[in-house]
Model the fold of this input.
Amino acid sequence: MTGATGVLGRLVVDRLLEIVPAGEVGVSVRDPAKAQDLADRGVRVRRGDFTEPAALADAFAGADQVLVVSANTLGPDGVAQHRAAIEAAVAAGAGRVLYTAHQGARPDSPFAAAADHAATEEILAGCGAAWTSLRNGFYANTVPMFLADAASTGELRLPDDGPVAWTTREDLAAATARLLVDGAPDGPTAPLTGPEAVDFEQVAATVGELTGRTVRRVVVEPAEYREILVGRGVPEHAADLLLGFFPAAARGDFAPADPTLAELVGRPASPIEDVLRATLVPSGS
Done:
């Protein structure tokens, strides 16, 4: 698998090592020194970079399956990196290529990352090997970023939105590990999501319940929110990416919730309330 020193990738590796012997797991990372602890545990660690196909060929050699964790790069460059990884996996003889996509993957999505995922799924469909696109729910760890100082100001000021099936990386890692071990379906999976889809009106109400302070949901124009983000020090390109989230959510791209993830891991998926509690409520309270 790629991206093993990133947040999601490392979680997937950790879950895999609870299920299979370390010798059956190989990782491709840009800096092997950062994965030395995995090598010490018996994981095969090789250098691999999406921008260097020759290195990927060595990294993927002998793999039965390759999990390609999506790149942080957006747009044509990011899609080209995904193509390089997929083609290298197929050339190495992998029987299946898996890719961490998104529940909202659509070519016409106003959320740039979702459009990139849709483009990558097209590459997978023509790659010549069995493939699986993991339709992951929207990361729940982004909710505190959207909240900013709402708990202290009493106002959650965001553009109009829609319900989102917020999903923890920990749950996604557990589900991904099970699919790698037990077998993944062909094509896109069912949405791998948390247990419910909620909008920011409901998030604001939950923040109020957890903190004991009323938090009012205030709808602002996208241009105003962009100014808020840039004023907080968010780079303009990142602010524009975040703005695309709201119209995509409003049309339902990140909903509904689906039971598949919970079925894979054999337990209920974590609700957004748990994430907010961990963020907002002091330990021991």
Q: What stands out?
A: The chain is about 45% helix and 10% strand. The chain has a mean pLDDT of 96.
